[in-house]
Amino acid sequence: MLQTLKSKLPEGGLKLDPRLSLAALALVAALLAVGVVYYLWRDQGAFRPLYGAGEAYPAAEVMQVLDGDAIAYRLHPQSGQVLVREDQLGRARILLAAKGVQVKVPAGYELFDKDEPLGTSQFVQDVRLKRSLEGELARTVMALKGVEGARVHLALQESSSFVVGKREPGKASVMLQLAPGYKLAPEQVSAIVNLVAGSVPQLDAASVQVVDQYGALLSRGLDGWGGPAQNWQVVDDYQHKAVANAEAVLAPVLGGGNFRISVAADIDFSQKEETFQAYGETPRLRNEVLRDESVLDQLALGVPGSLANRPPQPAPEPAEEQPPAEGEAASQAATSLRKESNRQLDYDQSVTHVRHAPFSLRQQSIAVVLNAAAAPEGGWTDEARAELAAMVKSAVGFNQARGDLLTLSVFPFTTASADAAQGEPLPWWENSKVHELAKLGVFALISLLLLLLVVRPAVRGLSQRSQPSAVPVDGDEPLAL
Questions:
Q1: 46-99: which CATH topology?
Q2: Tens of each residue's pLDDT in the chain, 481 residues
Q3: Who contacts 205 (Cβ-Cβ below 8 Å, separation ≥6)?
Q4: CATH of domain 109-115+122-157+169-228
């Protein structure tokens, strides 16, 4: 086959136009550049992180171990992580474990694994306990998403055996090292505050402060329970939710770009605790004591001890009963009667202790603007506007007794406002569809250039050389094919 191609090619080789030759060389250079970039990009994608983002391995020791075992690695330009090839990932991790390269984390309760020497003071033991508790809290905080490092400092009062004396509550401070471009939400900061406060005895959430690596106080605006209060975020969240509720009922009716809603909320952040004690209207019997005593005492007569040791004599025959004399009856018997009655009445009572929410809505104002161009047939009538106003009131929780205000207006919208409602479009160079089309266009252009500048001239030259040239006849000019 090669001999056939050589026989078909001219002796001087394939001659192309100089301009076409230059274009062909440029095309070949471009193809080589694209191939090199693609190879490098693919080679870069084959590398994987050796450890997680939250694992602080000593990079110097890791690179020394990898160099000693001839394992290729790279460093990530942003995070500084050590990257190895995907097929060498397991081998590299086993090698690090065999060499004893461990993650640098704060020391925890393993500080007590060492035997205490005889004569260790109580101060040293207290400091070691405090360090271990700080290390365990730091490890727990570092397990959260977006937190690469953490330091916890505890200020605790030493325990005393004396009962007299008030012990001051402890305090704590947490320093966080966040991942690049990551920002903690108020709920996450509140979780860290409550986590630290719940792990240390006699530590309130209000005594825990959280800062980041830039020195920003993240725990500002948290109340005593570790929740967001008395800040603009509460107002902003309520207003956004109210607007979203109103848009949910108006968008299917009017369309997304035919109305505007604005909510201004007046929120009361004063904290209140109230105790009520109420009594009943009529008294009720609480306790009743009745006592009735009747005592009959026989008077003892005679010489003491004369007849005490003698057996009783038989009773004589009864004689005719004669009424005793008045003085004699009074001397022989004495009767005592006693009656007592004690009643206690009391009213029903109830004690109610109420702790109000950290914030409450005092008043809100809602403004709704409708697009005049989106009006139905006959325009915006009073009935239609009243129905829309009722829908908005139900969506945002309108309360007339509270003093809420709602205004509904109709104005023509401009083109700029309609475009803003649909959202500002991305620039064309940031659109993902444009990127895909550009890739397809580049491949199509390269294929077309190869076809026109390389394949087509080669095929044309081969076809011309393969045709037999005309034999000149006497007196005739040679015919050109």
A1: Alpha-Beta Plaits (3.30.70)
A2: 445 544 544 544 445 556 666 666 667 667 767 666 655 555 555 677 777 655 666 777 778 888 887 788 777 766 677 788 777 778 888 887 787 776 666 666 666 667 777 777 777 777 777 888 888 888 888 888 888 888 888 888 776 666 555 667 788 899 888 887 888 888 888 889 988 888 888 788 888 889 988 888 888 766 555 455 446 778 888 899 999 999 999 998 888 788 999 999 988 877 788 888 888 888 888 888 888 777 665 555 555 555 555 666 665 565 555 555 555 555 445 567 777 888 888 888 888 988 887 788 889 999 999 988 888 887 888 888 899 999 999 999 999 999 999 999 988 887 655 555 555 566 776 677 777 787 777 777 777 777 777 777 777 776 666 655 555 555 445 444 3
A3: 193, 194, 197, 222, 224, 225, 226
A4: 3.30.300.30
Indicate the domain borders of the chain: 46-99, 109-115+122-157+169-228, 236-270+356-422, 273-297+333-355
pTM above 0.85, yes or no: no
d(CA 318, CA 324): 15
The fold adopted by the segment(s) 236-270+356-422 is GMP Synthetase; Chain A, domain 3 (3.30.300)
